């Protein structure tokens, strides 16, 4: 006859994996009360193990509802999710040690008790790894929140390495069948975070194909997780009236990960707009971008018209990328040489729209894209997005755009080193030779937003520009999304 323990445990873990934390807690507590009152515990650690499972259900509910971080206050008792996991870690470590001890000799059902002890030891061992992974993930989220709050920027590369370490150390090393579904949730969370962070790294390095593949992998991981969730939901039965009144059981963390992935996709669409626009009509591109969580192109166009700017550009310091190949996908055999360096003071040449090719060894001018201008032999800047669009411009508009860009790139060389040191700073610079005013704001180490006017602007007139540049930078760096992790 099958022991009751082998039917209770699958029921508890099934409810945990399906995010029914209250139900899992109730089952564990009722079984614990029953074995204590009846004195039918197969082994001494069984009631304590059920108590740990009830605590785990309560803490998991807080974790998946994004109650990850706690606001530290004066004389406030430490009662955070992280502290609760650490307490569970201590209790399960003690139970693991006790479950490894052989049952007392001469007791009835010694072989059966040994089987229960072995099962509990195995569960304790793997639950310890699961909880350690949870603690590492909380530290990860804390690090992200602190970085966005203090610096306004995340180091995506280091964060991706951290997630990869958590996944390889904990999420990939589970063998207990009872915990398969619970560990699948952990694995999907790590996979989504890792793919999104890798995608953000590739966007920073302006690598079109790598970013596309990573974001597609994040999308696949979320959909795989969604199938598990919807499969569990479909197994439930609701009455006609309760189907309208029941609250969604989809955890907030899962929804937040969808938002992070959507934000990364919107940023990808903005940075690689020129590449995407080559493969679709303008109307199709507008429809696709409107479906994104943030339509950056529409925001910039609306801002451009509202403040009556001359030009709004997203500028990449392409010389900071060792293997820079230009926009779009390129074969590995093809390389894009750094463009030549025109005389920065020769604005009249730029105004004419033609720059004479320098003598060898630098490559000829024809190898440059229309939006790419070099300002020195060391640094090269490329307009990866510009409005008004560079295509289909009249000759007069093209000449004006060239003069404006030649003026802006001089200030980029002078000010680019100062921008990363003050992320919220917007630099307002006036060029008396051409009469242009430029606003520079660093979005990322190699990316700068530039707003230009063909007239002199006062500090009072710059307030709408500063507010807009700070706001769009926060969206591009996911600051508001990670700020949502911290309770108010």
Automatic annotation (TrEMBL):
Organism: Hirondellea gigas
Residue ranges with Pro residues bias: 355-365
Signal peptide: none
Stated name of the protein: UPF0536 protein C12orf66 homolog
Spans annotated as Disordered: 332-372
Organism lineage string: Eukaryota, Metazoa, Ecdysozoa, Arthropoda, Crustacea
Origin: domain of life: Eukaryota
Pfam families: C12orf66_like
Gene Ontology BP terms: cellular response to amino acid starvation; cellular response to glucose starvation; negative regulation of TORC1 signaling; protein localization to lysosome
InterPro entries: C12orf66-like_central_sf, KICS_2
Polar residues composition bias: residue spans: 334-349
